[in-house]
């Protein structure tokens, strides 16, 4: 079972709740701050300030919506991999023929967070 509460758009009422959850997800997936910044559409300095609790994700921003999707991606991946964090990290970094790329690179370099999440949710539906 995931240590995180279910992440949905209405689950988090404040930036002070969502921001640390997203930082925890990135840490559990072995992601660098720069990678998280790109996923969220922020600057590296923004993530550094978030880690120091000097900045929070604005709940009316595109970064908020991406953060919710990113948290959901973690939860679906956690479900598919039955909580095996090593398998989760491996899946993110391995070539995936169905996605035509490496999921982490698709998230970080191509901005395809919604596509990767959609793929994972379809995998849950068939299992």
Question: Would you kindly provide a written description of the structure presented here, covering whatever features stand out?
Answer:
This protein is mainly alpha-helical. The chain has one domain (15-126). The protein is 61% helix and 0% strand. It is built from seven helices and no strands. It has helices at 15-28, 33-40, 44-51, 62-80, 85-93, 103-108, 113-126. Helix 2 crosses helix 3. The chain is globular and about 40 Å long. The two termini are 17 Å apart. Residues 1-5 have low confidence and may be disordered.
Overall SS class: mainly alpha
Uncertain regions spanning at least 5 consecutive residues: 1-5
Tell me about the largest β-sheet: none
Mean pLDDT across the residues is 91
Distance between the termini: 17 Å
Shape: globular
Calculate Rg over CA atoms: 14 Å
Order of helices and strands: HHHHHHH
Put simply, the count of helices is 7
Range of helix content: 55-70%
Key traits:
single chain, 127 residues, mainly alpha, 61% helix
What is the fold's blueprint, element by element?
Blueprint: H1 15-28, H2 33-40, H3 44-51, H4 62-80, H5 85-93, H6 103-108, H7 113-126
Quick recap:
The protein has helices spanning 15-28, 33-40, 44-51, 62-80, 85-93, 103-108, 113-126. The chain is an all-alpha fold and 127 residues long.
């Amino acid at each position: 079972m995931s240590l995180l509460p279910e992440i949905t758009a209405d689950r988090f009422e404040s930036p002070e709740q969502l921001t640390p959850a997203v930082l925890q997800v990135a840490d559990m997936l072995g992601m660098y701050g720069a990678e998280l910044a790109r996923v969220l559409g922020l600057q590296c300095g923004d993530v550094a300030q978030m880690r120091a609790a000097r900045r929070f994700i604005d709940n009316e921003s595109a970064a908020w919506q991406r953060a919710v999707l990113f948290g959901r991606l973690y939860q679906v991946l956690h479900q598919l991999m039955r909580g095996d964090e090593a398998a989760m990290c491996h899946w993110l970094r391995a070539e995936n023929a169905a996605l035509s790329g490496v999921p982490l690179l698709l998230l970080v370099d191509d901005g395809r967070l919604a596509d990767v999440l959609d793929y994972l949710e379809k995998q849950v539906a068939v299992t």
